[in-house]
């Protein structure tokens, strides 16, 4: 019974995260301002990271967890760099 519930929860989580990624992609493409696009990109990488974690839970391999960690680190750095660029017009001082 619990394996069935886990499988259903994993599939439901994957579907919901995929829908959230579609919504974030829409915000990136149709955002009226650059700040909206940066927030859409931030939401997109976060949802991609969570989707990889759900895949890792389902498969039981550590490769997905390591990829999610790399996406999380690179996504945070890119969001900070874009925010700094929007604030000052330059990334490197």
Characteristic terms for this protein:
87% helix, mainly alpha, 3 helices, 93 residues, Helix Hairpins, transmembrane, antiport
Describe the structure.
With 93 residues, this protein is an all-alpha fold. It has a single domain (2-88), classed as Helix Hairpins (Orthogonal Bundle), CATH 1.10.287. It has helices at residues 2-30, 34-59, 63-88. The radius of gyration is 16 Å and the shape is elongated. The model has no long low-confidence stretch (mean pLDDT 92).
Report the mean per-residue pLDDT as an integer.
92
Give the N-to-C terminal Cα separation.
Answer: 58 Å
**How much is the radius of gyration in Å?**
16 Å
**Which spans have pLDDT < 50 for at least 5 consecutive residues?**
none
Q: In CATH, what is the class?
A: Mainly Alpha
Rough outline: elongated
Q: Order of SSEs, N→C?
A: HHH
Largest sheet: none
User: Which structural class fits the helix and strand makeup?
Assistant: mainly alpha
Might you state the CATH topology name? Answer: Helix Hairpins
Count of folded domains? 1
Second CATH tier, the architecture: Orthogonal Bundle
**Total of DSSP H or I helical runs spanning 4+ residues:** 3
In what range is the share of β-strand residues?
A: under 5%
Give the fraction of residues assigned to helices: over 70%
Quick one: how many beta strands? 0
Write the layout of secondary structure elements.
Blueprint (H helix, E strand, L loop, with lengths): L1 H29 L3 H26 L3 H26 L5
Helix pairs in contact: 1-2, 2-3
Concise description?
With 93 residues, the chain is mainly α.
